[in-house]
Amino acid sequence: MKQPEALVIGGGPAGSVAAMRLARAGMRTLLVERCRESHDPVCGGFVSADALGLLRQAGIATDALGGHPVHKMRFQVGPRALEAALPFPAVGLSRRRLDTVLIDAAREAGAAVEFGRSARSLTGTRTASFADGANIAADAIILATGKLNLRGVERPGESAHGCAKVGLRLALRPSAACAAELAGTIELHLFSGGYGGLVLQEDGTLNLCLSVAAKRLRDAGSPDHLLATLAVEAPLLVQRIAESSPIGGWASIARIPYGWRARETAPGLFRVGDQAAVIASLAGDGIGIAIASATAASDALLSGGPAAAPVYQRDFARRARRPLAVAELLRAVAERPAWARPIAHMLAVRPSILGLGATATRIAA
After folding, report:
1. Which DSSP state fits 204?
2. N or C: which end of the chain has fewer CB within 10 A?
3. What is the pTM of this model?
4. Which residues contact 209 (CB under 8 A, 6 or more apart)?
């Protein structure tokens, strides 16, 4: 392949959608992914209506993805459960399934795809250096490395944006009773310094994601020991896990910069997905942000060329400001039982407020 016009670094939803759209428009596009095949990373597993709509606009047959339909949310604060209908349709869908479909679509659109190539740094804004010693230059780079930083274009100021948080993920095979109780539901369990989310996925597995203060995890010593300490604060979460069988081990990611937005960039460098904006995971709109930013970035590159990157980045930061601010407020409440309990009493009277909060964190709202 000749020098690519667009080099996409990262094969998650943001990178794949950007590569697919650029290749369809006739741009010479190379997508590189550090892993050797699609897999289930820590983040993801819940796909909202906004994300599904953007996927359909991109030509993806979302009905064929086979996601587990989700129509209800349940917040568990100690022994109290609060339920409300989701204000939009959603699905539980494994990242392995979603990423495979999107990378295949990018390849079918004409993008070159290379697995197992790990980018190490950027020289300037348009040349990437790889672990194998190669350097690849392009007219424009789409940075889609998720929450992982790339040397030379690190996100500045992360220490002020929730970097004391750790994300944990475990796949589970639920019992029949557990699966029946979670059918059609995304369930969030609140505890001091964090929260956990459970949602069934298309293959019948149960996706468990935890966001927890790094100090609490260090004090516990391991994710399994952490769960043991949650028996009083989140008894139902511990029960759900005990009723299920783990599939593989824990995956983790540290220094999560919740609330961060890329407000500026250099010409030729388009930040997408978590490189554009990092929303608290309990909002459930990470996939939506990934696809929305990829759509906006590819449109900007196609219409304005590499020079359009700064305008795109400022515009997307403006769009993301309110959803991220609302999500940060919800996260602050969720992680403090002293705040969450009185609010839980209020929500018990007006459960529809849960739906309003969910709507306010949508990037397309």
Report:
1. S
2. N
3. 0.93
4. 42, 43, 45, 167, 168, 169, 196, 197, 281
